[in-house]
Design brief:
The protein has about 140 residues and is α/β, with parallel strands linked by helices. It has five helices and five strands; from the N terminus they run αβαβααβαββ.
Length: about 140
């Protein structure tokens, strides 16, 4: 009786990584920004660049700690965990060399803010994308 339960649990554990949602890095549909590379997005979100490659100010918007896409975004785009990024920003804040991106609740809040501001860039679950925003990187 326990064997099918153990087998089902093992299958679910093996498939869990495949269940993660895709992340879309977005800008306003009104923005002139084109497609970006993961490195370009990483530079913006780690405070190493404050402009889009074609020009124009780039203001990153982060999702709140614990929001679903946050860990996946940082892992895929910066190669760091959300905890490593938090430690990175703590050092910069302590030394007075930078401030982390503004945190906004979840996919819906980020999408609404980004849609109204052509200089902002953020990330949401790919399934939450609509015509108010433009995808510049899909992970």
């Amino acid at each position: 009786m326990k064997t099918p339960l153990v087998r089902a649990t093992l299958i679910m554990l093996l498939l869990a990584p495949l269940a993660k949602a895709d992340i879309a890095v977005i800008v306003s549909a009104k923005s002139s920004a084109g497609n970006l590379t993961a490195d370009q997005v990483s530079q913006i979100f780690l405070g190493k660049s404050n402009s889009f490659p074609g020009g124009g100010q780039a203001v990153p918007v982060d999702q709140s700690e614990g929001a679903g896409p946050r860990e996946e975004f940082y892992t895929k785009v910066t190669g760091k965990s959300a905890a490593q990024v938090k430690a990175y920003w703590s050092k910069l804040i302590f030394s007075g060399k930078g401030q982390p991106p503004k945190e906004i609740g979840n996919d819906g809040a980020v999408k609404k803010l980004i849609a109204d501001n052509p200089n902002m860039i953020g990330y949401i679950d790919k399934g939450a994308v609509d015509s108010s925003v433009k995808v510049v990187l899909s992970q």
